Structures are given as structure tokens and as C-alpha cells.
Amino acid sequence: MIRLPGDQKRLGALAQAELTYADRGATRDRLPPGYRPASRDARLGAGRAVFDRAVDGLLSWEMHRGAGLAVTASQPYAAVGAAVVLRWGIRPLGFLAPCRVVYRVDEPDRRGFAYGTLPGHPVRGEEAFVVRIGPDGEVRFAITAFSRPASLAARLGGPAGRKVQEIVTDRYVRALQRIAAARA
Hints:
This protein has five helices and seven strands; from the N terminus they run αβααββββββαα. By secondary structure, it is of the alpha+beta class.
């Protein structure tokens, strides 16, 4: 995990910041009105070893790094209350996406987390990432999100902003597929 000077102070402030949306935890159940919903479900492989690799790659922020994002996080693993700043693109251009983990899923056959947006994120909303293993051993990865523009740039970007979100989601899926397929 890369940390730059001042990151700890910034992450501490973000951990205390208010979420930029009111519907905390809504990715567990019913997505709120007034947001653009998004979902993706992809096969990762089969077997407990695939499940375990995928879960570790997800919770350790490896999936995000594998998707081409720079990750600065307050904790090495996604835990409730952990702050994370994701950067897509090259400094000083690019997008900063500050988030905080709002819940974890820790069941024997389902593991993951959701984070919510913090001030400075170009959109408002929440995104959940859950890896699950079925009774037949099939391992799947689900992403559920809702968002709407938070910044002027995101509002003006319109369809381009939605396309960026789709690209990042595709990268998340491909990164976790690579992680899950890797041999231990």
C-alpha cells in the first residue's frame, strides 16, 4: 500500500467525514430512488481455493490495484470505518474517489464489503462487492451500486461519467477474475 506524506492525516479526517448520501447500507436490500443503479454478476471459477483467493484479493484492496487504481487506505483490509482514497489516472489529472467502508459481509459462503462516498468523490452513492460460493462450488462476484453526480464536472460529464463507471466496473471484474484464477 502506497502512502504519501500527509495521507494518514487526510485518511483520519475522511474517517470522520459525513457520507455524501443518506441511504447508508442500501446496497444490501433495495436501492433508493433518485440514483442510477448498477449491477454486475460474473463467474470467477469453482472451488473453495478460488473463493478464498477472490475474497483475499477483494478485502486487501488488491482488486482495486489490479483494476489500475492507486489505493491509499487507512487499513490494509476493508473493515467497517476504513477510509480509502482511490485514484484513477495520472497526477495531477485523474479522479480522486474518497470512500469509507460502511458494512462487511462475513458469512461462510459470502464475503465482501460496501463503501460509501465521502466529500471530494465525483459521485454520491454506495458500491458493494460480494464474492459467493454456491452449493455446487461455483464462485461468483457481484457488484451492486447506486450513484448520482456530486460535482459539477460529473454533472457536465453526463454519459462520459457513466462510461467511466462502466469501465472501472469492467476492470474490477477482470482483476478479480485474474486474482481468483492465480495459483497459490
